[in-house]
Prior knowledge:
By secondary structure, the chain is an alpha/beta fold.
Amino acid sequence: MQPKDLLSLAEHFGSPLYVYDSEKIQSQYNRLTAAFSKVEHLRINYAVKALSNISILKLFKTFGAGLDTVSIQEVQLGIHAGFEPSKIIYTPNGVSFEEIEAVAQLGVQINIDNLSILEHFGTKYPKVPVCIRINPHVMAGGNSNISVGHIDSKFGISIHQMPHILRIVENTGMHINGIHMHTGSDILDIEVFLYAAEILFDAARHFKDLDFLDFGSGFKVPYKKGDIQTDIEELGRKLSKRFNAFQKEYGRELTLAFEPGKFLVSEAGFFLARVNVVKQTTSTVFAGIDSGFNHLIRPMLYGSQHHIENISNLKGKERFYTVVGYICETDTFANNRRIHEIKEGDLLCFHNAGAYCFSMSSNYNSRYKPAEVLWYEGKGILIREQETFGDLLKNQIEAEL
Ligand SMILES: *Cc1c(COP(=O)(O)O)cnc(C)c1O
C-alpha cells in the first residue's frame, strides 16, 4: 500500500480510520508456512483477539487457517465466519466451567490451563479430547504485561505439576490429544524458544495419544526500519528439524500448531488520524489529533512506540513533535518524535496498527469507534462503519425519574 492510497481512503471514508492491507496479511501467513514447509502437518491458528473483524476472520478462512480463541464470543464469531468448530482451539484463562462446557459442546478443541478445571472436566467428560496448556517457566520478551511464561504467571499449568496432571488423567481416563505452551509476546531469542520447545517435548512423552503440539506465539515484529524481530526463517529451520525428530521418536504423526496474532496482522494495519491543532508551548510542539486512547491505547498501556508519519507532507522538513490525543487525561502517543513538518489538517499515519488496536478500542469520552477498511485487490472495502449516536445509547435504558 502506498501513502497516496491511504490518503484517498481517508478522503473517502473519513478519519480517524483503520486500514488493513490484505496482501501484507497474506504474505506474513505465507512466510510462516514457508518457514515450516519441512513439517508435514502444520496448522496456523490465527489469534482472534488481535483483530476480530468478521471480514478479517473470513480472509484467514480463505488461507486455510484455523483460529485461536479465548472467549466463547470469539468462538461464535469464528463459527459465524464459516470456520468448522474442529478448526478452532479455545484457550481460556479464568473463565467459568459453564463457558468451557458450552464451547466443548460446539465441537471446538478445548485447551485447559489449570488443574481444578482439568479434574472437573475430565470427570464429567472423559471422552472429550483435551489439550493441556503447560507453563514451561521460560522468560521470553521484555514486557512484564505481555510475558506470560514466568514463574508467577497466571497462565498454564506449571511443568513442575506434571505428576499431578498425570494422576488426574489416569483417574479420570480422559484423552489428552494436545500439549500447548504460549510464553508471551516479543520473543527475540530463538534459543529461548527452542529451549521451551524441549520442555514441551518432555511433557509430550508422558502422553500416548497426542495429535498435536502447539507452540503458541509471541513472535516479535518490527516497529520501525532496523528494528530487531524474530527470525522466523531460522526458527523454522531449527524447530522443524527438532519437531520431525521428535515425531519419529514419538512414533505417531503429529501436527505442529502455532497461534500468532501480532505476527500476522500488526504490520498490515494503519491508523489514520487528522491533526486538529498544532500548539507551541515553551518546551515542546504538540500535534493534537482527532483521536485518543479510546481508539489506540497501546502507547499508553504498554509504551508501544508506533511509528508515525505525516503522509500529507512526506517531503517536508523534519521537526520534533509530541503527538497527543483529545481525551481529557494525559493521552500521549509519542514524545518528541521526529516527523515531517505538521500543519493543522494534515493526516498522520500510525504504523503497526493491525494487532491489539481496534480490538482494544472503547467509547471513552463518548466518542464513536472508527470505521475499518480492508485493502483488497487494490481497492478499499468498508468492513465496519463508524459508530453513530444511536450506538452510544444502544442497550442503555433511560430511567423514568
Ligand atoms: C494472545 C495470545 C496469542 C497471540 O499472541 P501474539 O503475541 O499476538 O502472537 C496466542 N495464544 C494465546 C493463548 C494468546 O493468549
